[in-house]
Design a protein that fits this description.
13 helices, eight-stranded parallel barrel, binds flavin mononucleotide, about 325 residues, 12 strands, alpha/beta
Length: about 325
């Protein structure tokens, strides 16, 4: 069997498949099942900045730091406080997950401004998390806030979390930046040990009957992987940070594509919610079979083999792909 070992955030992992943050990692029992099925590490569901007691953790700093953003965050405190067992329960969950399995446990903080709440990263480290995923989930909806200001906010948050803890920090971002390569390099220089590509924003729907805006959560489709493959393939050459691909990883072959593009790891949530956690072993054995059939003894040498600088036609990652698709008539008569 081919050797699937990889490294991510300074950790040696037995394979490149990580269970990304989802309700599956909210229970120690499911974490154990995922570990038994072969997953190399688990990301816990996020603790949201809205859940952390800002008053105790320096709300005044936060208020000074970003008046425009704060009220929106505060609005959700009452409803978010008990989500995922609340902030205190989250620490207990890290501790119990660590005790239950012998694979790395990556905690997740979800927020967008660097206020006092980031002190919580220290407690997460103290509770035993092997690494922290910082999910920066921000929609830039205010016309007076510029792209540069948003990016600065990201950098401030990363620096401030990195300042507080020694465990590695991966930053989960969305693809919605006007100059993503520039932003990625900035995050890398701010100290991100990993970049997780990409957040999926759940888009609300509209119900014309009730005239309500409906929060909606769709699981991903395999086609969503391509956006991630493209950007992993482009960014791998520019950043020291490890790349993790999340969004549309559904099969063993998808894991392989992530690695070929330059990802150190592939993360999965939707496929497990759809097919059950035993799908992990199917994905891993399909990956092993592919490597065996193609005569590869290890996955590692394939890392980044099809990233932008290593392919025969680097322009295929860029605008040229668009021209090619149109010219080659992929639209079948349209
Ligand atoms: C029900 C559900 C809950 C999720 N909760 C979180 C979360 O708490 N924090 C986070 O960073 N991502 C969360 N995600 C996003 C996943 O970790 C993952 O990045 C995303 O679903 C894309 O991967 P997939 O295509 O394998 O689903 C959640 C996804 C789902 C489906």
């Amino acid at each position: 069997m081919a050797d699937l070992t990889t490294t991510y955030l300074g950790m040696t992992l037995k394979n490149p498949l990580i269970a990304s943050a989802s309700p599956l990692s909210a229970s120690v029992e499911t974490i154990r099942q995922m570990a038994d099925a072969g997953v190399a590490a688990v990301v816990l569901p996020s603790l949201f900045e809205e859940q952390v007691e800002l008053r105790d953790l320096g709300i005044h700093d936060a208020a000074q730091a970003n008046q425009a953003m704060l009220p929106q965050a505060l609005q959700h405190i009452p409803e978010m406080k008990e989500y995922n067992q609340g902030a205190g329960g989250y620490l207990a969950h890290i501790y119990q997950a660590k005790k239950a399995v012998n694979i790395p446990i990556i905690a997740s903080l979800n927020g967008y401004y660097s206020g006092g709440w980031v002190q919580y990263a220290r407690l997460i480290e103290a509770a035993g998390a092997d690494a922290l995923e910082l999910n920066i989930y921000h929609l830039a909806t205010k016309p007076h806030v510029t792209g540069a200001e948003v990016e600065q906010m990201y950098l401030n948050l990363v620096r401030s979390v990195k300042d507080k803890i020694r465990i590695p920090v991966a930053v989960k971002i969305s693809p919605y930046f006007s100059a993503l390569a520039h932003t990625a390099v900035q995050l890398d220089q701010a100290g991100a040990d990993g970049l997780v590509l990409f957040n999926r924003f759940y888009q609300p729907d509209i119900d014309p009957e009730t005239e309500q805006i409906i929060p909606t959560l769709d699981l991903s489709g395999a086609g969503e992987l391509r956006l991630r493959l493209r950007w992993a393939g482009i960014l791998a050459q520019y950043v020291k940070a490890d790349l993790a691909v999340t969004g549309g990883v559904h099969s063993g072959l998808d894991i392989l594509k992530c690695v070929l593009a330059g990802g150190s790891v592939a993360m999965v949530a939707s496929a497990l919610l759809e097919h059950g956690v035993e799908h992990i072993s199917t994905m891993l054995s399909d990956l092993e079979t592919w490597l065996d059939v193609h005569g590869h003894e290890a996955l590692r040498p394939l890392h980044g083999k099809l990233s932008q600088p290593h392919v025969a036609d680097p322009a295929a990652f860029e605008r040229a792909n668009y021209m090619h698709v149109l010219k080659a008539g992929f639209l079948g008569g349209y």
